[in-house]
Fold this sequence. Notes:
25% of the residues lie in helices and 26% in strands. It is an alpha+beta fold. The chain has two domains: 19-185, no CATH class; 214-278, no CATH class. A five-stranded antiparallel β-sheet has the order 3-2-1-6-7. The radius of gyration is 21 Å and the shape is globular.
Amino acid sequence: MSxxxxxxxxxxxxxxxxxxxxxxxxxxxTNIENLDDNGDPVVFLSIDLVPExxxxxxxxxxxxxxxxxxxxxxxGASLVRVDGKxxxxxxxxxxxxxxxxxxxxxxxxxxxxxxxxxxxQITPFTTGFFEGLKGTIKANxxxxxxxxxxxxxxxxxxxxxxxxxxxxxxxxGSSSAKPAKKAAAKKVEKIEVEAExxxxxxxxKPAKKAAAKKAAAKKDEGGVEALRAKLVDHCxxxxxxxxxxxxxxxxxxFADELVTDEQMALVDDPAEIWxxxxx
Length: 279
């Protein structure tokens, strides 16, 4: 081995982009350092991302935000809604993005169907849905502007290929994958794997102000007020849990319409729209 080859062997990229991994030690948990608008701890799905390549670092305790309106049950093995609403993840949350990528894969849907047929009623709200899952992971970046105008970059993971569950060559299931507890299975709704799944959650929000839609009635100047009307309707219907979460949704949905500083200010400044509805 040349000295140059030896030098190169001392370093590794260490990332997880396009790496085959196994999901292990899945658990629903909270962190007192992460509080929602009401001062309650935010719920996370914590997963170890274990690469097949031994030279790539295991990413332990990766947190996938779930949001608020949930209660952790069965010692972290499952989630239930505490507000009576349908059990769904917000598509913009990290947990929602991970689940959405899985449900886009026909092979994964087939595996879930097989496990349901065998009596293992896993859903995205039980850790058995993720535990022992093998697949190719992709690291993605999202961007939005914070309320003070700073560009914020965040990372989220998706699965691009499903390779089955640990211990099962068919991918249908696994005796080694941690199944959902039977007690928890009765508390959560079954996922409709044969239908197109919408992974959205209407998180509980403060009461709307009576004058929430008055902003849309202003005279339009330079297309600002026409856009304002659309954004007001979007904000009224959003499941975003905070102003920054809503900004992420808006910049993805209205990317082609947010051109001028005046238009972007409708989104970036919470006083323009967000606070008039959800403050």
